[in-house]
């Protein structure tokens, strides 16, 4: 057809049906041919005019010819990545596209590869940034989140690209956690565990959003699981007194547990003590330790002074530090490994000795397993609370539970050490063995 007709109608050699090619109104060029499925020219012409007027039938409905022209222009254009990005932005503004992945971008990679890398302490750009900005992050924390990604996120999102994940996908994943069980008794996951599993992914995804690797903050507005944390088991004063009155299978482990009881120190902080951290009646808590980080800063990244108003305990700590067989001097660990130089006592030693001691004073094996060295931290806090000002207690334990604590914790209070020590002697002095009680 010729003249001002907006399309061309013709037959291909050897084929009965007519094809129509519509003219692109913007460029004047003819678009790709479409078969009318009509062998009669008059019928084919009728179909062509109907399509021009009412739109070309597609699976999702009739599409106007001028819209087909847009697609045709995109198909013919020598486009750059910037051009494609602008087109996607416009489609998103019109609500026609929710997400799209540009080839070769940060979003064009496997989601699970990204998440596992985020919690790989040695390779993670997220970890490097936190360390560069002096925000503490430890290997133990990263290891736990890496395991959550590998165990829970990977089976659900395998094969998905980072840029393809939507908020609906995250919600579906969260819902799936309700169906997962663990342990021999196949118990549902605890609320705290499920929330940590969620955070393992959403923390990394939020960071990706901050870097403009993805278009949506998938962590915004997440509603976490509600539930009470498992209640910590703490001993009674009578049980503590009986426990420390008996002989233990390991004197080093007994001293470690006793120190945890009268100071509220974390197990990792006790095992990280070195000779240089011992004062006359106090300890200088500069480090902590765990199986993944070796010697590291404390949990909140600050040094604090912890009172120990029991001379016999301080003497026992000094004697233990001096007995270190590895020739490491004041920099050596107080609670040293007997077999490996430069290493502290394994955390399982004081834990297993504690439980053995509990069985010795009458607890069953099942009951003894409810208690840990860290439980003494809760014991200390529970019995010291109300005896001294809360801020003094936080200075002793290293807890930071409000935004202003950091501002005030750097300022000394007249008589604060004496107040703390008096409360410690009052509460814990009677629980220690006779030789230590007398010294106190």
CATH class of the largest domain: Mainly Alpha
What's the helix-strand series? EEEHHHHHHHEEHHHHEEEEHHHHHHHH
Oligomer: single chain
Shape: elongated
What is the count of β-strands?
Answer: 9
Topology readout:
Layout: E1 7-11, E2 18-22, E3 34-35, H1 41-54, H2 65-76, H3 81-93, H4 111-118, H5 125-132, H6 139-157, H7 167-176, E4 181-182, E5 187-188, H8 191-210, H9 237-245, H10 251-263, H11 267-271, E6 282-285, E7 288-290, E8 294-296, E9 304-307, H12 311-322, H13 348-360, H14 365-368, H15 375-384, H16 390-397, H17 405-408, H18 416-428, H19 434-439
Antiparallel strand pairs: 1-2, 2-3, 4-5, 6-9, 7-8
Helix pairs in contact: 4-6, 6-8, 10-13, 10-15
General description of the model:
The chain has 440 residues and is mainly alpha-helical. The chain has 3 domains: 71 residues, no CATH class; 100 residues, no CATH class; 203 residues, hpI Integrase, Chain A (Orthogonal Bundle). The protein has 19 helices and 9 strands. Strands 1-2-3 form a 3-stranded antiparallel β-sheet, with helices on one face. A two-stranded antiparallel ribbon has the order 4-5.
């Amino acid at each position: 057809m010729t003249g001002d007709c907006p399309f061309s109608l013709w037959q291909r050699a050897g084929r009965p049906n007519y094809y129509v090619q519509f003219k692109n109104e913007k460029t004047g060029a003819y678009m790709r041919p479409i078969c009318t499925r009509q062998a009669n020219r008059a019928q084919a012409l009728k179909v062509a005019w109907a399509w021009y007027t009412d739109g070309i039938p597609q699976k999702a409905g009739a599409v106007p010819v001028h819209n087909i022209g847009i697609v045709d222009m995109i198909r013919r254009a020598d486009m750059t990545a910037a051009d494609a990005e602008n087109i996607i932005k416009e489609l998103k503004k019109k609500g026609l596209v929710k997400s799209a992945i540009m080839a070769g971008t940060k979003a064009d990679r496997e989601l699970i590869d990204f998440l596992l890398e985020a919690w790989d302490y040695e390779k993670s750009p997220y970890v490097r940034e936190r360390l560069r900005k002096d925000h503490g992050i430890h290997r133990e924390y990263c290891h736990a989140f890496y395991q959550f990604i590998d165990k829970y996120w990977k089976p659900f999102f395998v094969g998905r690209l980072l840029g393809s994940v939507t908020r609906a996908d995250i919600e579906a994943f969260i819902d799936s956690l309700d169906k997962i069980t663990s342990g021999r008794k196949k118990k549902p996951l605890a609320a705290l565990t499920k929330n940590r599993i969620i955070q393992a992914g959403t923390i990394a995804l939020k960071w990706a959003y901050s870097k403009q690797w993805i278009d949506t903050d998938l962590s915004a507005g997440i509603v976490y699981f509600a539930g009470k944390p498992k209640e910590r088991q703490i001993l009674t004063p009578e049980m503590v007194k009986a426990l420390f009155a008996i002989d233990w299978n390991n004197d080093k482990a007994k001293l470690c547990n006793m120190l945890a009881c009268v100071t509220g120190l974390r197990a990792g902080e006790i095992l990280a003590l070195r000779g240089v951290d011992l004062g006359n009646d106090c300890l200088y808590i500069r480090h902590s330790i765990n199986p993944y980080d070796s010697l590291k800063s404390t949990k909140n990244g600050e040094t604090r002074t912890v009172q120990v108003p029991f001379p016999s305990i301080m003497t026992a700590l000094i004697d233990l530090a001096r007995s270190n067989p590895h020739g490491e001097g004041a920099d050596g660990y107080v609670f040293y490994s007997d077999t490996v130089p430069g290493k502290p006592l394994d955390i399982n030693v004081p834990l297993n000795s504690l439980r053995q001691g509990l069985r010795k004073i009458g607890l069953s094996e099942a009951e003894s397993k409810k208690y840990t060295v860290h439980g003494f931290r809760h014991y200390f806090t529970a019995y010291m609370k109300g005896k001294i000002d809360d801020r003094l207690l936080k200075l002793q334990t290293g807890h930071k539970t409000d935004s202003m604590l950091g501002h005030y914790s750097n300022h000394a209070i007249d008589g604060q050490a004496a107040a703390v020590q008096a409360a410690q002697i009052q509460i814990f002095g009677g629980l220690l063995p006779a030789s230590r009680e007398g010294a106190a």
